[in-house]
Design a protein that fits this description.
56% of the residues lie in helices and 15% in strands. With 457 residues, the protein is α+β, with helices and mostly antiparallel strands. The protein folds into two domains: 2-214, Arp2/3 complex 21 kDa subunit ARPC3, CATH 1.10.1760; 231-455, PPM-type phosphatase domain (Phosphatase 2c, domain 1, 4-Layer Sandwich), CATH 3.60.40. It has a five-stranded antiparallel β-sheet with strand order 3-12-11-8-9. A five-stranded antiparallel β-sheet has the order 4-5-6-7-10. A two-stranded antiparallel sheet has the order 1-2. Helix 6 packs antiparallel against helix 7 (145-168). The longest helix is centred in the middle third of the chain and has 59 residues, at 172-230. The termini are far apart.
Length: 457
């Protein structure tokens, strides 16, 4: 007979626990959806006004009522998670929110009647107040998951083992209810609050990560603006004898490509294009150093090979990371078209004339920043009126589409042939358009930079 009674009790307890878990699972789903609301972020910032606290009190008061309505009747008592709402409200926003939630849940429970009505009502109010006092003790510090769970266990023990016997006595009926609801209520309420604060902690981490990402994006945007400010304006026609245009499109916010053009004297221009190994912030820092050194080291009485030699020695000094940069430098006389150039491992430029497009054959040259004693040679060509010298980085010819095909020199040659009669700006923009069409939705894999100089007739 005793075994039969024990089996019946165990079945009741198991059924009670299963039903409570089912009901609280629905609540946790609703709680998760609530934390996805943007205004819920105020909770994490601890920016509570009295209006916000009252709102939370009402909201979790409704949760407390749901905990009662979802209760399971057992031996004349109600196994429930009514105290969960006031406890969460108190831990999130203090005793005002917790007390209000407990009052709402407690009043509702009181009017339902039953032998445990009065102690359950008092316990719900105390749950919110106790959790609110714990919030004040924490002084704005985040409540840990284990702290919330232990506090919830303590509140349920106070509710079931202290408040209930004190208010309704210890009759056999009361003790029977206590034994029946003790473990289910402790397990469900402590698990529920642990899950809720797990959600809160995850949300807090998401917000911190998002804030850090926004900070980094802001800093990268500023770095991008600074980097672009170091480059000359894309088109600065200072002399009717020539047109010049340049464009740089980094693969990331900042990049390692560089270009420059400036007057050496009244008739000669210095044209520079380069590509630092790598991408991103480290490459952009090396690009900034190279860009500043270029103009500082350029001399009117020296050629481009001497400029590359001195620049190389500066870049090799203290370069423990062996970061290198490929550079092409040309000194072009606008009056005569005589152009002297030197190459430090960079892509060969194109000479675009009215009837032909040809890629220059360059002598080998070592990228800068590797060998301190590297020697650079000079070559010459003569630009005729209407000719265009087109410089670019390998982000152009190595652009890749979704089929992992490169844009390559053949496509670049075809684009330049089609665009050869146009202005330097139209040539560069036309190549960009061709690249965009070729790459499609594929992500840009490298920085893209172009510079074009045309002698006018």
């Amino acid at each position: 007979m005793v075994e039969m009674i024990n089996e019946m009790v165990n079945e009741v307890l198991n059924g009670t626990l299963s039903k409570l878990i089912e009901n609280i699972s629905i609540l946790m789903i609703l709680a998760y959806l609530m934390t996805r609301i943007s205004s819920f972020g105020d909770l994490l910032n601890r920016s509570f006004s009295l209006k916000n606290r009252l709102f939370l009190g009402f909201a979790f008061g409704v949760v407390s009522i749901y905990g009662t309505l979802s209760s399971v009747q057992i031996f004349g008592g109600l196994a429930n998670f009514r105290d969960l709402g006031p406890t969460i409200a108190g831990l999130l926003a203090g005793p005002v929110a917790g007390g209000l939630a407990g009052l709402i849940g407690g009043v509702h429970r009181y009017f339902l009647g039953g032998i445990t009505g009065p102690p359950c009502s008092v316990a719900s109010i105390l749950a919110g107040l106790i959790a609110g006092c714990f919030y004040l003790w924490k002084r704005g510090r985040i409540v840990r998951i284990w702290e919330a769970a232990l506090l919830m266990i303590g509140i349920e023990l106070l509710h079931i083992l202290v408040i209930t016997p004190l208010m309704v006595g210890t009759s056999d009926e009361v003790l029977k209810i206590i034994r029946a609801v003790l473990m289910p209520m402790i397990l469900v309420n402590s698990a529920g609050i642990a899950i809720f604060f797990f959600i809160i902690h995850n949300l807090n981490r998401e917000r911190l990560i998002e804030a850090e990402k926004q900070r980094m994006d802001s800093e990268l945007h500023i770095a991008h603006e600074i980097q672009m400010g170091m480059l000359p304006a894309p088109m600065t026609p200072r002399d009717s004898r020539y047109d010049i245009y340049a464009v740089m499109k980094p693969a990331k916010e900042v990049g390692g490509d560089l270009y420059n053009f400036f007057a050496l004297d009244g008739d000669r221009l210095c044209l520079v294009i380069g590509d630092v190994a790598g991408k991103g912030v480290s490459a952009s820092l090396h690009m900034a150093i190279t860009q500043k050194l270029l103009k500082a080291l350029a001399r009117v009485d020296e050629g481009p090979a001497a400029l590359l030699g001195r620049l190389n020695r500066e870049l090799c000094e203290g370069n423990e990371t062996m970061t290198f940069v490929t550079i092409f430098v040309a000194f072009s006389d606008i009056r005569t078209g005589e152009t002297v150039f030197s190459n430090g491992g960079h892509n060969p430029p194109y000479l675009i004339s009215r009837g032909d497009v040809s890629r220059l054959v360059l002598e080998s040259g070592v990228a800068l920043g590797i060998l301190e004693n590297a020697v650079y040679t000079e070559q010459r060509l003569k630009l005729l009126p209407g000719d265009t010298l087109y410089l670019y980085t390998d982000g152009v010819n190595e652009a890749m589409n979704g089929r992992e095909e490169l844009f390559d020199y053949n496509r670049l040659n075809a684009s330049l042939s089609r665009l050869r009669a146009l202005t330097p700006e139209a040539i560069c923009q036309g190549v960009l358009d061709d690249l965009a069409h070729f790459v499609g939705q594929n992500e840009q894999s490298d920085d893209i930079t172009m510079l074009a100089l045309r002698l006018n007739k």
